[in-house]
Each structure stands twice: as C-alpha cells, then as structure tokens.
Specification:
By secondary structure, the protein is an alpha+beta fold. The chain folds into three domains: 129 residues, PH-domain like (Roll); 46 residues, no CATH class; 114 residues, PH-domain like. The chain is 15% helix and 30% strand. Strands 12, 13, 14, 15, 16, 17, 18 and 19 form an eight-stranded antiparallel β-sheet that branches. Strands 3-4-5 form a three-stranded antiparallel β-sheet. β17 and β18 form a beta hairpin. The two termini are 26 Å apart. About 6% of the residues have low confidence.
C-alpha cells in the first residue's frame, strides 16, 4: 500500500490541517478518532481503500474524569520511535462470548503536540461513552486496570502534583424546558474534594443557560370561522424509492466496492447506510461524507452468511458482533436468483481470498525482481 501512494517530489512537502499528505514510510499510518472508534489507515490517498484496523471506544478501559492519564489512556514518553502513548482495551475473544482478552495499542508520533492532541481526543471520546451509560469514573474508583499497569514504566508522564478540588461533569446539558419564548438548559457537576488544605472547588454544581429564545408561532383566527371548504382537493402522495446516497456506486476488483445498504436492527427496522469494502475491511458509514463511521469488519476474521429466510439480506459476523443488512426490496431482482446478495458475496470472497493471494504473489515477484537487479 505504501508504494502505491508515492507522490512526486514537488508534492512531498504539501500538507493540510491534518498534517502531511505523504505518509513517510511503510511502517507509518494515518489515524482518525471517530466518536465511537479509532480507525487506522495505510494511506491518505483515498483512505476508504486503505482502511487497515480499528478499535471500538466502548472496549477502551475506563478513563477517570478527574485524572484522564490514570486509566485506559496512558502517556509513555519519548522513545526512538517518537513520542508514544498506550491505549488499554478488553475485547471479546469471539462473537457472543463473555470471555474478554486484554489488548494494548501503542501509538507513536514524530510531534509531541500531535501525540497530546490524539491522547486527549481518545480520552474525551471515552468519557462521552461513559456518560452516555450513566457512568461516573474517578481515579479512586477505577479498579479496572490493565495488566501492564502492574509494572511501572520509568518513562511515563510526570505525575501531577495538584491536590486541589476538581470538578467533573456528571450530566451534560439537558433538553430545553421550553420550545420557544426562552427556556433553560441545565448541566450538573460533582466536586472531588481537595486533599488536606489544598484549594476547594470553584464552580457551581448546577449550571444553566438560556435556550430557544425565538418567539413562538402565532395562531390567527380565520375571517369567517364558520366557513368550511368541503371542495378542497386532496392529491394522492407520490411514493418514489431511490438511492439515498449522492455518491456513485463503484467496484474495482481487489481495490474497492461501494454501495448503499440498509442496516437492520433486532426488530427488523431499516436504517440507510453506506457500505465500503476494500481488501482489508468492510466498513459501514451513516453519511455521504464518510465521517460518521458506524463499524468496521476486518474481512479476514469475518463470515458472510446468506439469509435464506429474508430475501435480499445477509449477515456479517466477526468476533465482536453480528449485523444484518438488506438491499432495496424493489431492486433486488428475482428471488430465486437473489442477484445482489450473490454479487456482494462474490466480491467479499474475492477481497478475502483471491485478492490476498494476488497481492502476496505480486509482493514475492517484486522481491525476486529486486534481488536480480542487485546481482
């Protein structure tokens, strides 16, 4: 993948707010923190084609809100590889299993500011995940610690000496009390008391702000309240089924497969989504921008199962979850043929088996070719 994203020397220095366009070597990656997962890409050139791996935020160990460096996210310091940090996680050993295995993800950066920004982003997303589950985690109450924490590393970040009282949020802004004419929203905080004679908490436990300040719509009486128009025509609604994505569907063998899809829940409710498959991952997005990522299946460890009872549907199962997907009922074709699911199943098997073999064969051929050149 690294060799396929080489740029002319004139473009090598170009960058944007996310850093350089060029990944410097084959051991480097581009990482993105979404609201529910950390995603790793092998290239910044058409990232969708080069999704490599991902870690769900829900599996990251708890992060204390009064000291975010004493939980599932840890600073490691500076090494030869750069400025490094570690993320501790517990993930299921297989689908529907209660057994969890512990994983440690190490990320290293050339720039310490980039490391700090990434570390804080992961910690913030984990705190949001905890709050959504009504969990308030403090350093004192955080008993779920990774095994690696038992051995102290001399290169860990400097310990914070402050023992002042600290405020942590226990509930973010509530819904507005009024729909119009000005209501109130409330935010709840909790004070972690200071140790000994250090400074107490400074802020209010309940904070409020104004909301929905616009005027309410007025209801005006008709000129003739007794007048009823029985001849008002009613037009029959037009129902039209069309693609909900503005992107074109595309397929390039062993490179990428994109299509609209319906994600099904346990009650068989349909939620429109976007499926993007490359030879490493099959990823589900909620929007056209590909910024709202739902989940990413690692193809090598995923099973594709046809749903014979539900026409035009299939199941994807990996070690963490099982999800059901369907296509558009009116565009699925002959039920006996079930063409869409069969085509997608063929593309999935190509990405999982055929393309992987082709890639390995090409790699060995390139290595032999380079060896001959040296001779």
């Amino acid at each position: 993948m690294y060799y396929s994203q080489r740029y002319p020397k004139s473009k090598a220095s170009e960058s944007d707010k996310y850093w350089s366009f060029v990944i410097p070597d084959h051991s480097s990656f581009f990482v993105v923190v979404y609201k529910n997962n950390i995603s790793i890409y092998q290239s910044r050139d058409e990232m969708l084609r080069h999704a490599q791996d991902n870690l769900l935020i829900e599996y990251v160990l708890p992060v204390p809100e009064d000291d975010y460096l004493k939980g599932g996210v840890r600073n490691m310091g500076k090494f030869k590889a750069g400025y490094c940090m570690k993320v501790f996680a517990k993930v299921p050993t297989e689908f529907n299993s209660e057994d969890l295995k512990q994983e440690s993800w190490v990320f290293c950066f050339n720039d310490n500011n980039k490391k700090s920004q990434f570390l804080k982003s992961v910690a913030r997303m984990k705190m949001i995940d905890q709050r959504s589950k009504d969990q308030v985690v403090t350093a004192a109450s955080n008993t779920e610690v990774a095994e690696e924490e038992k051995t102290k590393d001399t290169t860990t970040a400097k310990k914070e000496s402050s023992k002042d009282g600290k405020m942590i949020m226990i509930q973010d802004w509530s819904e507005c009390t009024l729909k119009c004419w000005g209501g109130k929203q409330y935010q709840q905080w909790m004070c972690i008391p200071p140790q000994n004679w250090w400074l107490p908490c400074k802020w209010e436990l309940i904070r409020e702000k104004a909301c929905n300040t616009e005027a309410c719509p007025e209801v005006k009486a008709s000129d003739d309240p007794n007048k009823i128009d029985d001849k008002q025509p009613f037009i029959k609604p037009t129902i039209k089924i069309a693609r909900f994505s503005q992107r074109f569907n595309r397929y390039s063998k062993c490179i990428i497969r994109e299509t609209d899809i319906f994600k099904m829940d346990k009650e068989n409710n349909k939620y429109p989504a976007r499926l993007v498959m490359n030879n490493q991952t099959l990823t589900i997005y909620w929007d056209d921008t590909y910024e709202n990522k739902e989940y990413s299946f690692e193809i090598e460890n995923t099973e594709f199962t046809l749903e014979w009872q539900d026409f035009c549907c299939f199941l994807l199962t990996d070690k963490i979850r099982q999800q059901k997907f369907c296509w558009f009922d009116t565009a699925c074709g002959d039920p006996d043929e079930n063409p869409f699911v069969r085509w997608l199943y063929r593309d999935f098997r190509d990405m999982k088996f055929t393309c992987k073999k082709m890639k390995n064969d090409t790699y060995h051929l390139r290595c032999r070719s380079r060896g001959n050149q040296k001779k």
